[in-house]
Amino acid sequence: MLRNIDPVLSPELLKILRAMGHGDEIVIADANFPAESTARASGAACVRADGSDASEMLRAILSVLPLDNFVPDPALSMQVVGNPDEVPAAVADYQTIINDVADHPAQIQSLERFAFYDRAAQAYAVVQTGERRLYGNIILKKGVIG
């Protein structure tokens, strides 16, 4: 155990977060997301965190990872199919967490479902959580610590 490090951040995940560079992206995925195949397609790491929900994982990751403040969209969610303007409950929760925890709070932007999958396939890593809320996926772009 380490002081001031959220225990949901496993040694494997801490290593990944530390190794990521400015502009690299990480996906926090819900239980329905094809995390293993998405990560395998690009050679990215897939970290299993089935005992955690995506909100607690987002809060933990943002406690150590700076959001990129050089881009307009450092946090991306998946649009609801057939209703792209709807904000799912999970995403509303994520926005509150970003507002509370992120060093550079940003408004979550959204991507069409298949565009989200394509973007996720380019990520540095995918964290598969046990999140059961639909559309409970988010991509974060790592920033710099000034």
Automatic annotation (TrEMBL):
<protein>
    <submittedName>
        <fullName>L-fucose mutarotase</fullName>
        <ecNumber>5.1.3.-</ecNumber>
    </submittedName>
</protein>
<dbReference type="GO" id="GO:0062193">
    <property type="term" value="F:D-ribose pyranase activity"/>
</dbReference>
<dbReference type="InterPro" id="IPR050443">
    <property type="entry name" value="RbsD/FucU_mutarotase"/>
</dbReference>
<dbReference type="Pfam" id="PF05025">
    <property type="entry name" value="RbsD_FucU"/>
</dbReference>
<dbReference type="GO" id="GO:0042806">
    <property type="term" value="F:fucose binding"/>
</dbReference>
<dbReference type="InterPro" id="IPR007721">
    <property type="entry name" value="RbsD_FucU"/>
</dbReference>
<dbReference type="GO" id="GO:0036373">
    <property type="term" value="F:L-fucose mutarotase activity"/>
</dbReference>
<keyword id="KW-0413">Isomerase</keyword>
<dbReference type="InterPro" id="IPR023750">
    <property type="entry name" value="RbsD-like_sf"/>
</dbReference>
<dbReference type="GO" id="GO:0006004">
    <property type="term" value="P:fucose metabolic process"/>
</dbReference>
